[in-house]
Amino acid sequence: MLKIQNITYGYTSIHNVLENFSLSFEEPGIYGLLGKNGTGKSTLLYLITGLLRPKQGIITFEGKDTQLRDPETLKEMFIVPEEYNLPSILLPDYVKVLKPFYPQFDEQLMVRLLEMFDMLGVNGATTDENGIPKINLGALSMGQKKKIYMCVALAARTKLLLMDEPTNGLDIPSKSQFRKVVAQGMREDQIVIVSTHQVRDVETLLDHVTIIEQNAVLFNDKINVEEPVNLEELFIDALNRAAIGRPKD
């Protein structure tokens, strides 16, 4: 469904973050994208959505080149970046702006997810005629903005959802709520890719783990959701195995 083929990208002409990198996500599910700082995880998410364009190679989603940013492709993709600002408008007005771009947007799902995050009455917000809380998005804390944006992202009902460090800025209870929100809010046929360093926040949520380093895919496999998995140990083991097989300078 999502294919990354021989991608090369760098922010300067001297150094490439990703070089001749390939990876594919074929089945619906929740994928954890892990790697050390500087391995290009965030860059990869932006390349997938076409917000960055590779020097060479191609990324296709359902057979279409994502860097063309065709509206028919974009309506099935949503990204939650690590850092962002929301406009100083009310949530119902924000939804009205987004809905034309995401025709499957589910307002009632968004309200249910907001309720799971205890956000319906935040800052004394009342609701409009559709039950959407009239929250002033510009008056929220970082953690509250994250909750709002993740609920909006899931409510967009896209086939592909990308999240970059989604639990940063969330307190401990909210991190537990995050796992429940994603599990209950995602579509059965949806690919959700979560790029994170906070592995303990997501290890009970993931169906599949992908570990990358130095343009190589060190691990890429399903995990047994019925058995506990220690992602930190899995990550370190993958890095150690790669180091053993890497030629010395």
State the secondary-structure class.
alpha/beta
What characteristic shape results from the CA principal axes? globular
- The helix content is 25-40%
How is the largest sheet built, in terms of strand order? Answer: 6-7-8-3-9-10
The second-level CATH architecture is: 3-Layer(aba) Sandwich
CATH H-level superfamily title? P-loop containing nucleotide triphosphate hydrolases
Describe the largest sheet.
6 strands, mixed
Q: Note poorly predicted spans.
A: none
CATH domain class name: Alpha Beta
Which radius of gyration do the C-alpha atoms yield? 19 Å
* Tally of structural domains: 1
Number of beta-strand segments: 10
Q: What does the average pLDDT come to?
A: 92
What CATH calls the topology is Rossmann fold
List the total number of helices.
Answer: 8
Structural account:
The chain is of the alpha/beta class and 249 residues long. The protein has a single domain, classed as P-loop containing nucleotide triphosphate hydrolases (Rossmann fold). The chain is built from eight helices and ten strands. The strands form two sheets. A six-stranded mixed sheet has the order 6-7-8-3-9-10, sandwiched between helices.
Tags for this entry?
four-stranded antiparallel β-sheet; six-stranded mixed β-sheet; 8 helices; 31% helix; Rossmann fold; 249 residues; single chain; alpha/beta
